[in-house]
Structures are given as C-alpha cells and as structure tokens.
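Most newcomers find our protein records easier to grasp once they have seen one. A record pairs a protein's sequence with a compact description of its fold. An example says more than a description, so a record of this kind follows:
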Amino acid sequence: MSRKKATAWVEGSLRPDPLPYRIWGKAFIDSEAVRQMDQAMRLPVAAAGALMPDAHVGYGLPIGGVLATENAVIPYAVGVDIACRMRLSIFPVSPILLRQKEGLFRKALMEQTRFGAGARWRGSELADHAVLADPDWAATRLLQSLKDTAREQLGTSGSGNHFVEWGSLHFEADDPDLGVERGDYLALLSHSGSRGVGFRIANHYSQLARKLRVDLDPAVQHLAWFSMDSHEGQEYWLSMELAGRFAAACHDVIHQRAAKAAGLKGQASVENHHNFAWKMNLPSPKGFQDSERQVIVHRKGATPAERGTLGIIPGSMADSGYLVRGK
C-alpha cells in the first residue's frame, strides 16, 4: 500500500469492519461497551485501540476505552470532564491520627474545598494559583469567557463519583522512587476534573466537530473529529491542554489547603489523569516506510501505564484503593 493511497482511504467513509484491538478481561465487559468500541474502530482515522477490564458504556467511546487516531483529535472521545484525575498526597505520620482527631480532619475537608456541580468560592475565599496567569486564557474568545469560572472554581470538586478523602496507605516494601519506607502512612486522595471549564470546552468543540462532519454515520456522530492540521483542531488541543493544567491546579489547591488546615506537610505525591489525549508514537503498519508514526491516543476513563508509571486505582466507600506501577 502506498502512502498516497493510504491517505486517500483514511479520508473516506467508515471501515466495513473494525480494526482488531485488545480487550482486557472481556468476560467482565458488557456487550454494548464492546459494540461501542467496535464502532470507534471503524472510523477512517482509527489506528489502534484497547478496552480496559472495567470498561462500561459511555457517550461515543466506552469509559475504559483507548483509541489512537491518525492526525485527528476527537473531543467526545476525550469527554466532557477533560483531564479528570486522581491525586494522592502521602504524609509522614501515622494514620492513627484519623481516629484521634476525627473532627479536625473532617473540618479540613468540609471547609477547605467545595463539593458539587456549580460549586465555587466567593470573595476572600478565592484561591490563587499560577494557572490563573497562564497566557492561554487569552488565546480564544471561549477561553477568555471561562477565566472567571476558573477563578471561582479553582480548588473545588465536582459531583457524581468525585471525592476528597483521608485514609490509610500501606507500603509492603520500601519505595525509593517516592522516598517512603515500608509501613503505614496518613494519605489524602482526591478525584475530580476541570469543572465548568472542561465542560464548556468539551461541549463547544464536540458540537463544532459534528457540524463540520454532517455526513458522518449517525452511529458514530459523537466521534466527529478535527484534523490536527486544522485551525479547529489546534484550537481544541490548546484548550484541552489548558483544561488539563487547570484540573491539576484544582487538586494542588485542595491538597495544600486541606494539609495546612490539618497541620500537615506532604512527603510525596502521585497524580495521573484520564479523559485526555496524548501524542504518542506507534509502529507503522506494513507498507509504510517509517518504522513509527505519531498518533493521537484518547483515553476515556483510562490512564497511561507504561513501565514504571505510577497510577491510582480508587476503591469505593467500602473497598480499598490501590497505588500501582505500570509493567
């Protein structure tokens, strides 16, 4: 296959059959989530994909779905809560403190963040962070309009499965990478994303992508894409990355405020995010001269897990979470 022919085909209609992809834990995944991933792998811009063992039905791309595309970014494959993430702070004190000073730790949570859709700070409660001085807020009219929302929601948590909680973290062995020894530590764990900022960016560009691809099969309309060479694609990419920095800043503020209120100083932290797109290199298919080509990897409710990469798997109110390292 020549490079010219491959490019011409990519710009055509849906593939008759999905590209092959890896499914981890298929026995535990419902058939509708697999069907959604099959549809995504029929996209002409699809290059590779994978489905995680906790995958379930989402909008457009299943949650737990990973989709690599050729020179294209799909706003809805990133999702409405851009760069939603986990952050874990580890403190060099015993978790026994949680029982001894329960009121102190509860107060630190309830007073040092805000929870729920639309939650925000007012007046003297507003936080400050370097992200508010980021020049990219002035890059587009939409981002300019979101600056006040960012200022008011900086350091807040969303609704649904988002949370901030204190807990006990056990290390079965010394971890030189984190600088901690075997034992039990007090920890703070949070899960939330880019709040109203990410929601507005996702809605705006998802709708724009669908308008630009009105001939796309209705089964995959939510997966309308922008070429990375287009003005719209570059605008979305810049906005997505700014939303990612804002989401990270929200966690930074929450952890700083809660730790200060509890009289603690962190020893180490771990952070990773999902609902995002990354530029990565993949082996080129047969027929291409280059050994690798750059793709855009969308991870919906999934995170990178390359060798040595630290990650967080949250539990529930009844189940433990885990700190993991990629293999």
